[in-house]
Amino acid sequence: MDSVTGENLVKYYKNFKALDSVSFKIREGECFGFLGANGAGKTTLMNMIYGFISPTSGRIQIFDKELNKKNLPEIKRIIGVVPQDNNLDPDLSVIENLLVYARYFDIKKKEALKRAEELLNFVDLYKWKQINIRKLSGGMKRKLTFIRGLINDPEILILDEPTTGLDPRSRRQIWDRIEMLKHLGKTIILTTHYMEEAETLCDRIAIMGKGKILVTDTPKNLSIQFGGNLEKVYLNMTED
Amino acid sequence: MNIRMAFKVWQRNATVYRKLYRSSIALNFFEPMLYLIALGYGLGGFIKEINGLSYTEFIAPGIIMSSAMYAASYECTYGTYVRMEYQKTFDAILATPIIFNELILGELLWGATKSLIYGSIIIIVISLFGLVKSSFVLFLIPFIFFCGLIFASLSLIATALVPGIDSFNYFYTLILTPLFLFSGIFFPLEEMSEIILSIAKINPLFHLVNIARAFCYGNMERAILTDSFYVLIYLIILLPLPFLLLKRRYLL
After folding, report:
1. ipTM of the complex
2. Which end of chain A has the lower number of beta carbons within 10 A, N or C?
3. Confidence of residue B36 (pLDDT cuts 50, 70, 90)
4. How does DSSP classify residue A156?
């Protein structure tokens, strides 16, 4: 079954065409990566999947439901989002950030606390749980934003540059978690600028340029088809 | 739109407020107290009485409403603007099952709650000064909330329209300050010319101040039904606008 389908998605910002008839199918349990230069339309596409940006035309389907205004809240319940910017609550502590967020998903306080503590442990943030997030380093904030996106145990996880700004050890922690989620059959959709990340995690990759998907395939096939490693493919494809 | 989900947004704001209120709450009622003392006891020494009330008694009920007005206004201009544009709290919330209208309803209700908090504190304080003569004052509480809803709406409209956070100065100087000064808090507008009185009738605070004065002194024969009717009309006109205008500003 496909978990996320996009059909002829077009998005205009005023006169600027950010997405130009983008279609894709992401299978359930797959890790699907979107690669592309800055401004290629990746974030617009990510934001569209959870209804934050509405397409100018085209349709999105999540499992067997077409995304519309009516079922948006219901669909958002099964999606976890890790946005590109860490939009954490600066006035709250680490644990409060997770608990307040869990409340939006109707997760009971006791259950939320259990999940929050497990996730904090996983990314080595447990000992900071009472700390105000203003005191955290950039990398710690990134990790907190990542686990916040997991608090509702989502079926579909949207990761917009999840490991940007992380040290190698923290990056590994995030990758381990993503691998674990894949084993649990969750669908992962990610954007990244790191070729190594895409090769390690993604089952399939779509390379985007100027609001279009240029090619979609497995990392291996892309290397074979275009010669060289993924980085070369990427640089060739996104050249002007 | 589901009010239970809007309440979660309210709860988020309340959670943050509980952590920070100690640093702001004193200031919030210090200012109204200044008015009461400086004008009531200072200027009041030169004024015999107005409609059978001492000058302090005359202005005290209005101070309840103006505090409520400013509480909701600060919250839904600077507060909401920071959550929307700087902290990206709106972005974070909209990635959860909460939808845009629920988010805005949460902001409105929170703004009105701030009015309720500060308005009630003023009631307590002026009661301690012996300025409340009637237990009808308790009926004022829903009107403080309505005052909050009206000015939370107006402020969210401003938030939807300002190009940047500095532009709120225009809103305060050109809109709220005139509404505050010409609301009948400090002098009876009924004594002014017909023109001024008819302009004042457009001012929602004018009607709220009339209601406050009536309830504080149990003086129910005043035409507060008319004033309540105006309040209702304001609510009906203003409440839908923040939803429409903020959606236009914020959603891509």
Report:
1. 0.93
2. C
3. confident
4. E
Instruction: Count Cβ–Cβ pairs < 8 Å, chain A vs chain B.
Output: 69
Q: Which residues of A118-139 are buried (b: 16+ CB within 10 A; e: fewer)?
A: ebbebbebeebbeebbeebeeb
Q: Report pTM.
A: 0.94
DSSP reduced 3-state for B245: helix
Token look-up 């990340």 returns A197
Q: In the numeric block, which tokens belong to residue A171? A: 């990056």
* Residue numbers in B near A53 (CB within 8 A): 251-252
Nearest partner of A159 among A47, A53, A41, judged by Cα? A47
Residue A167 is given by DSSP the state -
Alpha carbons A48 and A169: distance in angstroms, whole number: 31
* Tokens read off for B138: 């308790």
Cα separation, B106 vs B99, whole angstroms: 11
The torsion angle over the Cα atoms of residues B146, B150, B155 and B157, rounded to 10 degrees, is 140
**Cross-chain CB nearest to B95 (options A52, A69, A92):** A52
pLDDT in tens, A174-189: 999 999 999 999 999 9
